[in-house]
Amino acid sequence: QSIVNYSMKKQRSYPNPLQRMTCNTFLNLFPPLLLIFAAILHDVLSFTNEPPGRDPISIDKVRGAERAVSLTSDNFDELTKGKLVFIKFYSPHCPHCKEMASAWNELADYYQQSDNNKNEDILIGSIDCTKSPSGKALCGRFKIMGLPTILYGDANFGGVYLEEYRGDKSFTDFKQFASQTLVPKCNPGSLDACAADERVEMESYIAMGYHELDAKIKQVKQREIDTKAFYADQFGKLQDRYNEQLAEKTSYVSRVNDDVRMIKEVIALKVKADT
After folding, report:
1. How far apart are CA 8 and CA 53, in angstroms?
2. d(CA 135, CA 105)
3. H helices within the chain, ranges in order?
4. N- to C-terminal Cα distance for the chain?
5. Which DSSP helix (H) or strand (E) runs through 126?
6. Are strands 69-70 and 122-128 parallel, antiparallel or unpaired?
7. Is the distance from CB of 103 to CB of 174 less than 8 angstroms?
8. Helix (H) or strand (E) holding 149
9. In 3-state terms, what secondary structure has residue 258?
10. β-sheet bridge partners, residue 122
11. How many Cβ atoms sit within 10 Å of the Cβ of residue 186?
């Protein structure tokens, strides 16, 4: 019996490690385990078959990094009304779009400073052509065929005056182009930017009806055709005169060469006779 009691005391004195785990120990270990489990669960739930750069997390990250004004079909007309705009059409997973992203952000930051945009009439914008439906609809409205595409100009009347930028894509290039180009220009939506004679002519066009404007276009195009024909005729006459002058020059040079040859032959003959 004493042997049995001793054995039982020994077991009680040295419990199994799992038996020694107290509630406090478990509670201390539980938060780290929960964080590990949450991280694993997040990775599982966010798994996608999309290649790198096209998964939802990467796309959201690219969109979130844009510092230009985000434009969609819902806000375009409101935000660009009366503005001179420089707008980038892009895709979050387009390599060329990513290459110019930092330069575009720098341009947006520059024009968001009041000293560089005193009249607040210049807007630097970005449009994600993959964003459904508002982004895709806006890219369709402007018939965007390749990315990135950059449009600039007066945004009046829904952007009908916008033109495509085809220059280099560094911040310096963007800034220089914008400072020279994003200035008010004479058009039906910006009459205050017109010179006196331009305004008179513009207002006369505005007063015309559709048929009168079509007839005016035909008249101007016919004038262009007549002007081209006139200068083509003048060029032909100049070409004929040039050919005549060239023939005269060739004949004169030939006679000079003949005279020089004969003089040299006479000199050679005299030298031979003297010897």
Report:
1. 65
2. 19
3. 2-13, 17-20, 23-45, 56-65, 76-80, 95-111, 134-141, 156-159, 171-181, 196-207, 210-274
4. 159
5. strand 122-128
6. parallel
7. yes
8. strand 149-154
9. helix
10. 84
11. 16
Q: What is the pLDDT of residues 133-164, one digit of tens each?
A: 889 999 999 999 999 999 999 988 888 889 99
What pTM value is reported for the model?
Answer: 0.61
Distance CA 90, CA 155 (A): 19
What are the tens digits of pLDDT across the range 10-41? 455 545 554 555 555 555 665 666 667 666 66
The β-bridge relationship of strands 149-154 and 69-70 is unpaired
Q: Which residues contact 206 (CB under 8 A, 6 or more apart)?
A: 188
Long-range contacts of 224-230 (CB under 8 A, 24+ apart): none
Residue with tokens 């997390």: 57
The widest CA-to-CA distance across the chain, in whole angstroms, is: 161
Q: Which of 27, 30, 80 is nearest to 189 (CA)?
A: 80
Cα–Cα dist 164/150, whole Å? 6
**pLDDT, tens digit, for every residue of 193-242?**
889 999 999 999 999 999 999 999 999 999 999 999 999 999 999 999 99
Write out 72-121 in H/E/C secondary structure: CCCCHHHHHCCCEEEEEEECCCCHHHHHHHHHHHHHHHHHCCHHHCCCCC
> What is the bridge-based pairing of β-strands 122-128 and 163-164?
unpaired
Question: Phi and psi (nearest 5°) for 184?
Answer: -55, 135
Take residue 38 and report the two structure tokens written for it. 């949450």
Q: Which two tokens stand for residue 17?
A: 């490690």
Gap between the Cα atoms of 131 and 162, Å rounded: 22
Residue carrying structure tokens 């969609």: 72
Residue corresponding to tokens 């559709």: 210
Count Cβ atoms below 10 Å from residue 190 Cβ, excluding itself: 16
